[in-house]
Design goal:
- The protein is an alpha/beta fold.
- About 40% of the residues lie in helices and about 20% in strands.
- Helix 1 runs antiparallel to helix 10 (about 275-289).
- The chain starts with 7 loop residues before the first strand and ends with a helix.
- Strand 8 (about 155-160), helix 6 and strand 9 (about 180) form a beta-alpha-beta unit.
- It has ten helices and twelve strands.
- Bound molecules: NADP nicotinamide-adenine-dinucleotide phosphate.
- NADP nicotinamide-adenine-dinucleotide phosphate binds near residues 68, 138, 139, 202 and 232.
- NADP nicotinamide-adenine-dinucleotide phosphate binds near residues 137, 139 and 161.
């Protein structure tokens, strides 16, 4: 990678960010497109995000990704918010443009919802009219549910350990297709048996707790189900292994990561993203980690 006076800068702010795959994924994409751009990880402590973003704008950055824990708090520094990001209540991508007098403008987007649906369709699953179970009610769940609603899914049951959080999600997204329930193994098995798609948006199964799964050990996963796990570290979670062993179709979290990153790449550069290169860079990073 060449860094010179014309290099355009983007990056990711979060706390922590040292385990982020995004620098490897985006720098591989810039190289593949022959763009003199560079993507850097930027650790920003809670409370410092507003100063950091204004500083990046003053430094001439073209944009920045936002990750945990800043996705909601950055909303207040933005000049414009895309309807998708406003509906989800969180931003994962900021584009920085300039007024003729040089004043920076900050535009917020959320590419997670479209990234999720894009990954689903790329695997051949069309959500329109389908009955879905979403486990979890955090930031990722909000994007997944919003994406499913936009894509015309049928009934969506949101199961969460903390019922209150699931209720908040469904009442804020306001749609008669949504219902919130408390996550119990019995209820999960029951609603999944009637659904066509099960999506894990919780952190359960994520490294280092790789022996954990939302699905009870002794119960077979219905073979008619498609099981999508947003966790991408590891790529093959215990949940996906349980599903595969029962003959169910599985989708890992990498497709969504690449799709949401590709959308951010396109927002910043205006060019189509080289998604195969981006996926290969992530796989290489995960096998090295
Ligand atoms: P978050 O806002 O912190 O939400 C975490 C969720 O996990 C909550 O619903 C929480 O339930 C639930 N949870 C945590 N521990 C649990 C346990 N032991 N049993 C049952 N539920 C549990 O996190 P997030 O930002 O939504 O991210 C969630 C996951 O999605 C992470 O693994 C992240 O890496 C992944 N993700 C992947 C992509 C992708 O592109 N593939 C994109 C975004 C996120 P409570 O409400 O009860 O605490």
């Amino acid at each position: 990678m060449r860094i010179d006076g014309k290099t355009q800068l983007v990056g990711v702010i979060g706390w922590p960010v040292e385990h982020s795959l995004s620098p490897a994924m985006h720098n591989a994409a810039f190289e593949a497109r022959g763009l003199n751009w560079c993507y850097v990880p930027l650790p920003v402590a809670p409370g410092q995000e507003e100063a950091a973003i204004r500083g990046l704008a003053a430094l001439g950055f073209r944009g920045v990704n936002i990750t945990v824990p800043h996705k909601q708090s950055v909303l207040r520094v933005l000049d414009t918010i895309a309807p998708e990001a406003a509906a989800i209540g969180a931003v994962n991508t900021i584009l920085i443009t300039r007024e003729p007098d040089g004043r920076p403008l900050l535009h917020g987007y959320n590419t997670d919802a479209q990234g999720f649906v894009g990954a689903l369709r790329r695997e051949g699953f069309e959500p329109r009219g389908k009955q879905v179970v979403v486990v979890g009610a955090g930031g990722a769940a909000r994007a997944v549910v919003r994406g499913l609603l936009e894509a015309g899914a049928g009934r969506i049951t949101v199961l969460n350990r903390t019922l209150e959080r699931a209720r908040r999600l469904t009442s804020e997204l306001q749609d008669s297709r949504l219902e919130a329930r408390e996550l119990t193994p019995e209820l999960l098995v029951r609603v999944a048996s009637e659904a066509e798609l099960l999506v894990n948006t919780t952190t359960v199964g994520m490294w280092p707790h790789v022996q954990a799964s939302i699905w009870p050990v002794a119960v077979p996963v219905p073979s008619h189900l498609t099981v999508f796990d947003l966790v991408y570290n590891p790529l093959e979670t215990l949940l996906l292994r349980q599903a595969q062993e029962c003959g169910a179709r599985t989708i890992d979290g990498l497709g969504m990561l690449v799709e949401q990153g590709a959308l951010a790449f396109e927002i910043w550069t205006g060019q189509p993203a080289p998604t195969a290169v981006m996926r290969a860079a992530c796989e290489q990073w995960l096998h090295r980690a």
